[in-house]
Write a structure and sequence with these properties.
Length: 380
């Protein structure tokens, strides 16, 4: 059998106190009523006792209005409060609700069902608020744990990538040295194939480590200052930095077209998009750029099967691949592309290329006037 409710009544009027005690006794609630006649009597009653609910008259001999609520709340930090008012039209400040007041009862026309409903409502609402606070606290704790996990993950990735870079550099250097000591075309066919496979895989491993280091740097390092440079030159550098055969790429870019940003960013963007097109698309692969009314529009298009519509929401998320593990890579390429483009003030989106293929569209703000001079860069 559950314990009776412990109810604190803070009321100076003897008649009102007797009426509330009678009304409470006529409800179906099992309750024990403890009365304080003034605000000064509250602390001794609270000490060592736990009250389930408090009925509080706003107007006491030693306190009036909202001050009464604030002082009772200071003594009953985790108890739902029901305020007793003289009339239903009495003005009550909204702040009373913020101080834990769960309901208001007018002393005029009180009936047992009204009192019982107010107490039940106050208890239920108070329980709901506490559960919500517990959920918020749990969410805050989980967020802190996730932030710490992400920090540790980022540190691990950075350290691991740096540690891997040195042996990879040694392997690449050793393969190049072997070719200089004895040209590969003079090797036995099987040795040539093994050397080519080692060269290809070391390049792939170097690219993976580069992606890891760049992804980490984007989160922890300030970007280089923007400059203005010819778009065609950066595209050529991007083709060289990619794994694609330059002969399989068609480039259509006006020679006088320039953009403002970090040149190394755009080189990496082109390299990653071309590598992605080679890995998941099909030739011919095209790079086109045009100037619109107020932007420079850059397209990288292939003629493969395109991106599965179900995968589109995850296209730019890190460590996500349409075909995990089947084509190599870590799933960082497009996420890096999006970060670099946005860092330079641009925007990137995917478009389905008709009738087949994938097309990535990048738009940078055109920060030059049509006379060829640079417009001022926005501060901040």
């Amino acid at each position: 059998m559950s314990s009776p409710l412990s109810v604190l009544l803070v009321e100076d009027d003897d008649g009102d106190a007797r009426l509330l005690a009678l009304l409470l006794a006529e409800t179906d609630l099992r309750a024990e009523l403890v009365r304080a006649r003034s605000l000064a009597e509250v602390p001794p009653l609270v000490e060592g006792n736990r009250f389930d609910v408090a009925l509080v008259d706003l107007h006491l001999p030693d306190s009036q209005g909202l001050d009464t609520v604030l002082h009772v709340r200071a003594n009953l930090a985790d108890t739902p409060l029901i305020v007793l008012t003289g009339t239903s039209s009495e003005h009550l400040p909204e702040r009373a609700l913020q101080e834990g007041v769960q309901d208001f009862l007018s002393k005029n026309g009180l009936e047992p069902p009204v009192v019982a409903h107010a107490i039940r409502y106050a208890l239920d609402r108070h329980t709901a608020v506490r559960r919500l606070q517990d959920i918020i606290l749990m969410q805050d704790q989980l967020r802190e744990q996730l932030e710490e996990t992400n920090r540790l993950k980022s540190e691990f990735v950075t350290v691991a990538a740096h540690e891997l870079r040195t042996p990879i550099t040694v392997i690449v250097g050793a393969l190049s040295t072997l070719d200089r000591l004895l040209p590969v075309d003079q090797w036995p066919p099987k040795a040539t194939r093994l050397w080519a496979a080692a060269k290809r895989q070391s390049r792939r491993l170097s690219d993976l480590v580069g992606d890891l280091l760049l992804a980490s740097a984007l989160d922890h390092e300030d970007p280089a200052p923007p400059t203005r440079f010819p778009l065609a030159e950066a595209i050529d550098e991007g083709i060289e930095a990619s794994t694609i055969d330059p002969g399989s790429v068609t480039v259509s870019v006006p020679p006088d077209l320039e953009v403002t940003g970090v040149r190394g960013h755009l080189v990496r963007v082109i390299a990653n998009l071309l590598t992605n097109a080679e890995r998941y698309g099909a030739p011919p692969i095209e790079v086109r750029a045009t100037r619109t009314v107020d932007t420079v529009r850059l397209e990288v298009r292939d003629h493969g099967v395109g991106v599965d519509p179900d995968f589109l929401p995850y296209l730019f998320e890190p460590f996500r691949q349409a075909e995990p593990g089947s084509r190599g890579g870590l799933g960082l390429g497009l996420q890096i592309v999006e970060r670099l483009v946005k860092d330079d003030g641009g925007d990137i989106r995917y478009e389905s290329a008709a009738p087949t293929g994938a097309c990535f569209v990048i738009e940078y703000p055109d920060r030059s006037d049509r006379s060829g001079r640079d417009a001022p860069l926005a501060s901040g």
